[in-house]
Amino acid sequence: MDIEALNAQFGIENVLRVVTGRGGLTMIEITNGLATALISPHGGQVLSFRPAHAAEDLFFVSERAYFEAGQAIKGGVPVCWPWFGPDPQGQGRPAHGFARIWPWTILATAQEPDGSTFVQLGIADDEHTRALWPYYFNLLIEIRVGTTLAIDLITRNAGDRPLRLTQGLHAYFKVGDAGEVAVHGLSGCRYLDKAADGADAVIEQTGPVRFDREVNRIYEAVPAELSIEDPVLKRRIGIETKQSRTAVVWNPWVETARAMPDLDDADYRHFVCVETVNTASEVIEIPPAQDYSLGARYRIESA
User: Fold this and answer.
1) pLDDT tens track of the chain, all 303 residues?
2) Where is the active site (predicted)?
């Protein structure tokens, strides 16, 4: 479907339009008086969200990010599904699953009574997905753009056997200086330290999470509300989660960032990832004809 046809079906006058974006990819632009947002159907990915009161965007997107078919876009909120992390079976399939590099279909748009804007995108299984993951499914992402941003990732088991998966909303939050940032809400939680030398170490968090080296941690038994304190941008980012008891906190720091071709060397200073996930011991099993919804709501507050 071309851009003109997409706008005829899904455009909302003076609020939502479908455009051709970077790399020739189709994008959804929203400006509704409460906020602006940019959504990429490639990957089903929110790339930008800025409420009207905010001085800066909520999200970081690398200037060197790949905007092309078959590549993940570095920034915004990539969708990790149906596995989080490396291929769990070691078959050479894409890290973090295939959803973040897949073309999603625009299914619905609407303007809500409260002034927010609703967008629904989806993927249904076909011979291409089943070659990577041999299950029948419908995957939806529902996005609500208002004074806050809400994202719900909904998996529907369309087959006759249980689905087992891990997944995540891999949010890259824009910050003034990662070295000055503090992540609150995880004190007392145990985490698996994926950046530790040798075997993964299990450690209990004491106080806020801070960044002065590479951080790559899977926290378990986490509360439903976390926050990021950013004194440089003078704001606090609130994160409310639904049906997630694990969280990943990540920043690549100097050496790992240098090894990533889709990051500038200094980019590690400008984002931290606090990811709403089901991973590690939190493997989700969905019975036939049932749904599972992983959700996050983000807000920006003055510090």
Assistant:
1) 699 999 999 999 999 999 999 999 999 999 999 999 999 999 999 999 999 999 999 999 999 999 999 999 999 999 999 999 999 999 999 999 999 999 999 999 999 999 999 999 999 999 999 999 999 999 999 999 999 999 999 999 999 999 999 999 999 999 999 999 999 999 999 999 998 875 678 899 999 999 999 999 999 999 999 999 999 999 999 999 999 999 999 999 999 999 999 999 999 999 999 999 999 999 999 999 999 999 999 999 997
2) 170, 275
Domain boundaries, the chain: 3-302
**Separation CA 214–CA 210 (nearest Å):** 10
Among 239, 233, 192, 41, which residue's Cα sits nearest to residue 121?
Answer: 41
CA distances for 58 relative to 51, 127, 285, 300, angstroms: 9, 37, 32, 7
Q: What are the catalytic residues? A: 170, 275
Q: Which two tokens stand for residue 247?
A: 């969280």
Q: Please state, in angstroms and rounded to a whole number, the distance separating the CA atoms of residues 98 and 124.
A: 12
The one-character DSSP state at 7 is H
Look up the CATH number of domain 3-302.
2.70.98.10
| Residue among 250, 245, 204 nearest 228 (CA) | 250
Half-sphere exposure of 179 (CA within 13 A, CB side): 7
Q: How is residue 14 written in tokens? A: 């003076």
Token look-up 């009207």 returns: 52
Amino acid at 286: I
Cα gap 184→61, rounded to integer Å: 23
Cα-flanking dihedrals φ and ψ of residue 162, to 5°? -65, 145
Whether 47 contacts 75, CB under 8 Å: yes
CB atoms within 10 A of CB 275: 25
Distance CA 97, CA 76 (A): 17
Cβ 237 vs Cβ 173: under 8 Å: yes
